[in-house]
Backbone:
């Protein structure tokens, strides 16, 4: 298993409390997590990415449990084994598309070792996602939302991290672009070594995924 | 991380540029004060060597060395030739060169002296005055000019010139009844000698015959100069005299003897000691300027820190992205400090360029106004230490925003 979660429970200071179903994701599995706004989808992703501290329960990623990790060890875990795609504002605006994509390798020696020639890999993924050299050379602020999302996908996939987390990556795209994006994302994903969790409220994405988990909201059981 | 820091600074080029310029300007001020003061001091110290004492009318030692050696200011009094001859006959004296000041040629100071001036007066340690053309004056109408005089006025050996009465070029009382002939032109020395006109004491006395209280009673042009008795050409007074002693061991005793000379009030000064006294006074002013410069540097560093802290809020998303891709708080702190380092280095590079330019311009002014050409070196050890200290101060001050970045959690950024 790439990822397992057990008895995850998180309570915000303002009072909202979430209980999440246990997850187990193997290589090649694509999971879609759905639910209405405020149901805890982003909270779950934040717990898995280590952005939120564990309050109860545990998470195991590539055999390492989060409870054993402290400080920068969690940052290293994220750098080495996770690729993250945000909903919007994925890129550093003053860097080029290429430079943003290359950030995926910046903080992980493990991911760098997996890529013989980063430039070749970035260009390969760019072609697979329909991006040209011009897109890679342009500053991020000059790219469209869809192009920025594709650059974010390259960054997340570069160096083949075991788990890809995508938080509503198509929310800013139109339906046609959404379908194309998901197809390109899943086409670039390596099923032999990688798993994926994608969060969305868009039911049209369900056919693309192996499993759909629906969260109901605070105190979900 | 270096490329990331560079790209980040480029994205904020306006505020970063302004802070860099402010810091560079403060560094230029500090270094310029340091350089010009050192260069001027070196230039002054190298102007005169090989002279044990300067004897002149009793006055301040700084005043005496300034008007005799640097042609700054005006002599307040003279010494009689009898007194100087008396001093010259003392057993301690190895050589004595008298000088008389007071006239000028088109703004260049006229120094009346003897041909021994070019033999005994040295500069820059032990360098002798050499001639690029001609030789010391031998005839009564001979004149030796400094290299700057020749260059600016276009004189060569054989050129004729008239001396103007008084130290100011604007005074209209020209000794136009007697022309001097350029006998020699000195090589450049980087000292006030470059901007001086040297005439024989006898020639100087000749052109002042018939002058009383600053006005001319009769002109020389109508007189047979050969008929003038030799003793009439012996100066009655001189301004000062350079002295070389046979032994330096007796220097201070000799000075005391001169101070106690009964016939007229005279004093003897050691040029180096007088200059040291001058620098101790000038040094206090320099310290005030240096303090102000350091204050400006501190203010510039505060501006840099303020800019960095202010930018942190607008860079929250950027920091969040970096954290999400695996950057630790240490990485982000290092990024902030790297940016400060680059601003500091940029300021240093700009300041070195500007300070070199400003001291080159100042050296031109110093050469024109003081007649000294200071040696401008590239970067001294002291300057390197100052710049290193400023760079480290900048890094230390950037610890504040670095700590702020360190404490921000990933989740805070994701929620914004």
Residues:
């Amino acid at each position: 298993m790439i990822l397992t979660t057990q008895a995850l429970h998180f309570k915000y200071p303002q009072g909202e409390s979430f209980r999440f179903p246990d997850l187990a994701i193997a290589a090649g599995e694509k999971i879609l997590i759905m639910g209405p706004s405020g149901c805890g989808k982003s909270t779950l992703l934040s717990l898995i990415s280590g952005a939120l501290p564990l309050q109860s329960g545990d998470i195991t990623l590539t055999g390492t449990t989060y409870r054993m990790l402290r400080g920068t060890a969690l940052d290293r875990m994220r750098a080495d084994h996770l690729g993250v795609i945000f909903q919007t504002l994925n890129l550093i605006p003053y860097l080029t598309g290429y430079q943003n994509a290359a950030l995926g390798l910046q903080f992980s020696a493990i991911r760098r070792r997996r890529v013989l020639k980063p430039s070749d890999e970035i260009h390969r993924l760019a072609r697979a996602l329909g991006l040209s050299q011009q897109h890679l050379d342009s500053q991020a602020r000059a790219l469209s939302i869809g192009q920025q999302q594709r650059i974010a996908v390259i960054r997340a996939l570069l160096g083949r991290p075991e788990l890809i987390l995508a938080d509503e990556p198509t929310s800013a795209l139109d339906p046609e672009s959404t379908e194309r994006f998901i197809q390109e994302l899943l086409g670039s994903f390596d099923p032999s070594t990688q798993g994926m969790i994608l969060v969305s409220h868009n039911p049209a994405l369900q056919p693309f995924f192996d499993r759909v988990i629906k969260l109901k909201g605070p105190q979900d059981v | 991380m270096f490329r990331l820091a560079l790209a980040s600074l480029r994205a904020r080029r306006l505020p970063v540029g302004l802070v860099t310029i402010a810091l560079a300007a403060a560094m230029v001020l500090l270094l310029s004060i340091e350089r010009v003061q050192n260069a001027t001091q070196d230039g002054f110290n190298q102007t005169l060597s090989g002279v044990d004492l300067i004897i002149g009318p009793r006055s301040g030692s700084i005043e005496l060395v300034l008007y005799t050696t640097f042609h700054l200011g005006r002599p307040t009094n003279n010494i009689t030739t009898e007194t100087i001859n008396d001093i010259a006959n003392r057993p301690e004296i190895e050589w004595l060169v008298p000088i008389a000041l007071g006239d000028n040629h088109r703004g260049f100071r006229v120094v009346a002296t003897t041909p021994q001036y070019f033999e005994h007066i040295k500069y820059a340690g032990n360098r002798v005055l050499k001639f690029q053309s001609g030789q010391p004056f031998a005839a009564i109408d001979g004149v030796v000019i400094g290299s700057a005089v020749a260059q600016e006025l276009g004189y060569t050996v054989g050129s004729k010139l008239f001396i103007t009465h008084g130290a100011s070029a604007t005074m209209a009382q020209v000794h136009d009844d007697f022309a001097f002939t350029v006998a020699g032109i000195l090589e450049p020395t980087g000292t006030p000698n470059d901007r001086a006109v040297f005439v024989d004491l006898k020639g100087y006395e000749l052109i002042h015959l018939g002058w009383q209280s600053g006005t001319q009673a009769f002109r020389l042009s109508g007189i047979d100069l050969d008929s003038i008795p030799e003793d009439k050409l012996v100066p009655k007074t001189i301004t000062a005299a350079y002295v070389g002693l046979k032994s330096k061991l007796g220097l201070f005793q000799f000075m005391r003897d001169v101070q106690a000379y009964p016939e007229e009030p005279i004093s003897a000064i050691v040029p180096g000691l007088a200059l040291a006294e001058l620098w101790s006074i000038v040094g206090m002013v320099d310290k005030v300027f240096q303090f102000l410069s350091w204050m400006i540097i501190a203010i510039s560093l505060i501006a840099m820190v303020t800019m960095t802290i202010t930018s942190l809020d607008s860079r929250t998303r950027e920091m969040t992205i970096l954290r999400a891709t695996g950057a630790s708080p240490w990485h982000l702190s290092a990024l902030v400090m790297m940016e400060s380092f680059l601003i500091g280095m940029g300021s240093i590079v700009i300041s070195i360029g500007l300070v070199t330019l400003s001291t080159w311009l100042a050296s031109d002014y110093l050469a024109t106004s003081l007649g000294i050409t200071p040696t401008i070196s590239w970067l001294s050890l002291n300057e390197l230490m100052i710049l290193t200290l400023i760079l480290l101060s900048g890094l230390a001050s950037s610890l504040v925003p670095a700590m702020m970045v360190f404490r921000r959690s990933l989740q805070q950024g994701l929620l914004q």
Summary: Strands of chain A lie at 3-11, 17-19, 23-25, 30-34, 56-61, 64-65, 82-85, 163-167, 195-199, 211-214. The two ends of chain A are 23 Å apart (CA to CA). Residues 175-188 of chain A form the longest helix (14 residues). The mean pLDDT of chain A is 88.
